[in-house]
Amino acid sequence: MEYMVKLKLLKKGAQKEIKKAKDLKELDRIFRKYLGKRGKITQILRSLKKLKKEKRVKIGKEANLLKKIIEENIREKAEKLKEKVRAEIFKKERIDVTAPGKKVLPGHLHPLTQVQRRVEEIFQSMGFSVIEGPEIETEWYNFDALNIPKEHPARDFWDTLWLKPKNQKLLLRTHTSPVQVRYMEKNPPPLRIIVPGRVFRHEATDASHEVNFYQIEGLMVDKDISIANFKAIIQKLFKRFFEKSIKIRLRPSYFPFTEPSFEVDMTCLTCGGKGCSACQRTGWMEMMGAGMVHPNVFKAVGLNPRDWQGFAFGMGLDRLAMMRYKINDIRLFYGGDLRFLKQF
Ligand code: FA5
Questions:
Q1: What is the pTM of this model?
Q2: Quick check: is 208 in a domain?
Q3: Mutate to test the pocket of ligand 1, among 175, 220, 265, 318 (most ligand atoms within 8 A of CB)
């Protein structure tokens, strides 16, 4: 075939294919077909040497021109295809600022926090202030100032987690009672406070005992305070907290920082008083230790025990929550199981 016709047909064919090419892969195939090592245009250029000079110059010029045109056509098309790919990626990754946001599911307060807040509300309505104290405590405040000197057997009531270095006598507080002393040191009576907070004990866990739990300390000091005041306040608290009358009993007990001392139990609401694992089959749940502030505690904070009287108590916050929600195992509060927590 005449060279010139051949070149014309190649041009037409190549340009048609380039126009149709849908992606860079196809374009690459077209490039190789026409301009690759064994490409159709390349072959023509190679065969020129066989021609006579005059024809070689003429055809050579045309063939080189065609090579440039096709190269240019391919380059332009490649740009277009790349731009298309870029546009697609952009479309996919683009942030649509007008799109509605993804909803973050709201959490809610832990049941123990809910109980704490409710108890605070009730006490505040009876004129009590809410006070906090440190979780890392000194031996002095946790024991000595509470009339529990070193070597006193009563220290064994509280299985203590001591902190290193031991000579600094630091520990994780075993109860909220040290805040009684801390508060009275700085605030002269008359006073009414409650102290909610986390406490720690190195003891075996069971359905009603944890190593980490919460207490609410209470302290009321004035000129003329008696156990009758204590009983009335606790009955009021339970009535408002449980929204019904609750049977309680005071059991004589012993705490070095109160005299007389007692423990307050309430009918176990988990079993209705029949006896279950939560109340160790007794039908009663021990809710708090309490008593009249011991003269030595007043002395430790520089107050004259002849001038002042008061009651103090330390209530198990977790136990209140167990009774409120009829939960038969305290450990559920600390398991972090959302199926449990979502119920509150
Ligand atoms: C005390 O901790 C005294 N500080 C209470 C007190 C305060 C007495 C003021 C007198 C005056 P006790 O160790 O009994 O006492 O603990 C008080 C309450 O905390 C218990 O009645 C119980 O409700 C709760 N409690 C005790 N140990 C645990 C535990 N391991 N897990 C959960 N709750 C507990």
A1: 0.72
A2: yes
A3: 175
